[in-house]
Every structure is written in structure tokens, then in C-alpha cells.
Write a structure and sequence with these properties.
By secondary structure, this protein is of the alpha+beta class. The protein has helices at about 5-25, 50-60, 100-135; strands at about 30-35, 45-50, 65-70, 75-80, 90-95. The strands form two sheets. It has a three-stranded antiparallel beta sheet with strand order 1-5-4, with no helix packed on it. The longest helix is centred in the C-terminal third of the chain and has 37 residues, at about 100-135. The chain starts with a helix and ends with a helix.
Length: about 140
């Protein structure tokens, strides 16, 4: 009876972390790095199923955020010799954040959260009906 609640709860937690990471990426999208330093690197959320062993230990089924990794590719280089972070050639390294992809990730996270909230509400209604059956 409580497996549905645990599963939806784990998915709500994963969706929350997904949206937090996307929000952090958006907040750092326009950041630049001083010459010789690495600019902000976009973070990615990697989710996985909670293993049967973890389920046996915690009693929780569902998904979890197994890793938050950095995307090391596609650092943006822009020619702007007047920028304080420009190197000797006049290029500035900016974060590798794609705003379209991040806004899409936010919408996916929001839909994930909404779907699991609906599942929790449906589970609550089923539990209420179970209690009504027990009264008869």
C-alpha cells in the first residue's frame, strides 16, 4: 500500500534535484572565466533505479539521482578584447550552457514533478476508499 507513496516520493525528490541543477546552470549561463581558468561547466543529472539491495535496506523503490556530472565540452569562446576576462588574443571563455536545453530541462522536471504529485493524490484517494470499505 505504501510502495506507491515511496516510489512517487523518490521521483519527486529526483525531479526537484533535476530542476535545481537546471536553475543553477541558467544562473551561471553568462559567467566568464579569467584567462587560464576553466569557466562554469554545465551540470547534468544522471538518474538510476533504486537497486533491489537498497530497496531491502531502506524499503524505498523508485528512482534516485545517482550522479551530478559536469559537461566538459563546447565552452563558448567569444572575441571581445575589451572584456576584463579576455586573454591576450582577445577571446573570452564563457560557460557551456545552452539556454534552450536548460529551459527544456526545467519543463521536463516540472512535468515530472506534476505527474508524481498526481500519482500521490490518486494513491491518497485509493487509501481513503480502502478505509471506507473497512467501515462497512
Amino acid at each position: 500500500m505504501f510502495e506507491g507513496i515511496n516510489t512517487s516520493g523518490s521521483a519527486l525528490n529526483a525531479a526537484k534535484q533535476w530542476m535545481e541543477v537546471s536553475s543553477n546552470n541558467i544562473a551561471n549561463a553568462d559567467s566568464s572565466a579569467a584567462p587560464g581558468e576553466t569557466p562554469f561547466l554545465r551540470k547534468r543529472v544522471v538518474m538510476s533505479e533504486i537497486s533491489p539491495f537498497e530497496t531491502a535496506l531502506t524499503g524505498t523503490k523508485g528512482v534516485k539521482v545517482s550522479e551530478i556530472s559536469s559537461d566538459t565540452g563546447n565552452v563558448k569562446r567569444v572575441y571581445d578584447p575589451t572584456h576584463p576576462n579576455a586573454n591576450e588574443a582577445g577571446y573570452v571563455n564563457y560557460a557551456n550552457v545552452d539556454m534552450t536545453a536548460e529551459m527544456t530541462n526545467l519543463m521536463v522536471g516540472q512535468k515530472m514533478y506534476a505527474a508524481n504529485t498526481s500519482a500521490l493524490q490518486a494513491n491518497e484517494k485509493m487509501m481513503e476508499k480502502d478505509l471506507e470499505i473497512g467501515k462497512v
